[in-house]
Amino acid sequence: MGFDQLSNMWTVIFPLAVLLYYFFRKKYVTTTISSTLFWERSMRETKVSPYLKNLQRNALFYLQMAALLLLLFILLGPFLPKDTIADKHTVFVVDTSGSMAANEGELSLLERNKEKMRALAGERAGDAITIITTGKEPTILVRKETDERAVLAAIDKLDLNYEHEHMVRALDFVRSIAIQEGADVHIFTDFLDRSVFMESVDGITWTVHNNEKPLTNIAIEKVGAIPTKDGTEAIVKLKNQSSAKQQGKVFIKNELTGAALAEQEFSIDEQADTLLSFKDLPSLSAMSAVLHVEDDYIGDNEAFVLIGNESSEVIVDNQLHELVKKAFEAIGLTVTTGSINEMTMAMDQAILVTNETSFLDKGSEPILLIGRNDTAAEPVAGIVDTVDDSLFAIASIDDVYVSALYPPFEGFTTLASVDGQPFIQRSPRGDIIILTDIGLTDWPLHPSFPLFFWSSTEMLRAGSDIVGIFTPNERKAVLTSGGSEGIEIFTMDDKYVATYADGGSFVAPSKPGIYKLVDQGVEKYLSVQLEPAEKSIAHGSSFHLGAPQADSTDKEEGKNMIGWLFLLPVLLLLLLEWEVQRRRGYPN
C-alpha cells in the first residue's frame, strides 16, 4: 500500500492538538451546596488532573482521536498498486478550411465534426486530449488537457479560418508530438485519402472521419476584369461539380457601393464548366460576382476582384546587369528580358526596368530606371543617407557602398544621397531612378538588394489604391508609409478587423472579401480570395488505421484508491461521539 497525497501530512497537528487539550484539561467536581454563600468558592478550579489520568475512562477522547486519525489517513490518499493498460492520449486534428462550411443537411461539416468531438470527449472524460487545427501553421488549442470542461469549451470555440488545410503538415506535426508516447489520433475533414499514411508509426492509431455523402456544388472558379475605354469588362468562369444539370443566375456588384450592375442567367451540364461575359460595365475599382444557385456550399458562390495596376510581369532591359533580373525573380515576379522595341510595345502592360532615359517621357505608367545611357558616371565617396520614405521601410540601404554616380535629374525628388549627391530619385509621375550601375556598388551582397526591388515594384504599382490580392491568413509584407500609428484593417462596412504596427507584420484577414487598409489616413483596398483547392467538396468513406487502442498490451503500474472505504467508519465514529456527548451532558 502507498499514499498519493503525502503533502497532507501536515494535518497531523489536529489530533496532536486534541491530545494536548486532554492533557491539560481542568477537572471540576460536582458538589451539593446547602447555601449560596459557598457557591463561588465551590465552583473554583479544584485541581489539575494528572496527565495520564485524564486519558482514563474517557470514551469521548478515544472516539475523537479515532475519527481524526481516520480523516488523516483518508487525506493521505491511500492506494493499492495494480497493473493497468497504458493509456495513449487522444488527439483531434480539425480541418477548419473554407470547404468545411459546406452543409450536410442543416449543419455544416464543421458543426457535424464538433458534435462527434463532443461525444468522444464525453466518452474519454478524464483522459488527456489534444486539439490541433490545420493550416499553413498547425495550431494547438489545448494540449493533454484532462479537464472535460476545458476540452468542451475549446471545441465550442472552433470556427472556420478559410485557410487551406495543408493536412500533410498537420500530420507531420502530430507525429512529432506523439511519436514518444503514442496517441489515438482522430482526423475530422471532408476527405483524406489512405495514401497519405504510407509511413506507419508504432504506437499511433489513425481514425479519419471523412464526409461520406456527395454534396451538390457549383463554384465560381475564376473572375477576371479589365478596364476599357468605355468602362469595365468582366468574365466569370463557373464549374458544376455535381452529377446533375444546374441552373442559376450570376450578379455583378460594385463592391464599394454595393450596387447591382448586371445579371445573367446560366444553365450548366453535370461535371462541366461555362464562361459568362459581362460588357459595358461602368468604371470600377472593386467588384464582386455573386452566384445564386441551390447548392450545399455557399463559400465559393462569391468572388472578388480589384481592378487597377496589378501587373506581376517585369521586363528588364537586356543591357542591365544579370543580378537585376535575379533580384526580381527572387521576389516571385515573372521576369523577361527585352530590347528597346520590345519594352516600347509592352510599356503599359508590364513594369519596365531599363537605363534608357527616354522612357521617362513615354507611356502612362512609371518605370524603374537603373543608371543612365545618356551621360557618364562620376566617382563618389561617402556613406548613403536616406530620407524617411516608405521605399526604405522594409530594408535599409545605409550600409551600401557606391563608387560612382550619374548626374541627377532636375526637378526630381531626392530620396537617397551619397556625400550630398543624389543617389535615388523619384519623378513627379512616380518613376524611381537609381543613379548608378549595379556593377559600381556592392549592393548585391546585401540582404536589402531584393527587398529594395520588391519595395520599388510595390511603389510603381501604388498609382492606384490597391494593396494586393491575398489568401486567408496569408503573411505578406505590404508597403506602408512607416508611420508610428501603424496600419488598420476594416471591412467595407467599416467594422474594425485588426491593427498592425508595420507592413512587415501584416497578416491578411481570414474571411474572403474586400477590405480597407488605412495608413496615415489614406484608404487603400485589398482582396482576400479563397484558394482554388477550397472551391471543391470531396467525399469518401471514413477509415481506421493501426491497432485499436483497447488491444494494447503495454502495462503500467496503476493506483487503486481505497480512501473512500473509510468514510463510513468516520461517519459512525462521529455519530457515536454525538451520542456520548448527549448522554453525559456538557457539565461533565
TrEMBL record:
UniProtKB keywords: Membrane, Transmembrane, Transmembrane helix
PANTHER family membership: BLL2463 PROTEIN
Protein name: VWFA domain-containing protein
Transmembrane segments: 6-24, 59-80
InterPro entries in alphabetical order: Aerotolerance_reg_N (IPR024163), VWF_A (IPR002035), vWFA_dom_sf (IPR036465)
UniProt domain Aerotolerance regulator N-terminal: residue ranges: 1-78
Organism superkingdom: Bacteria
Keyword Membrane included in the entry's annotation: yes
Domain VWFA: 90-191
Coiled-coil region(s): none
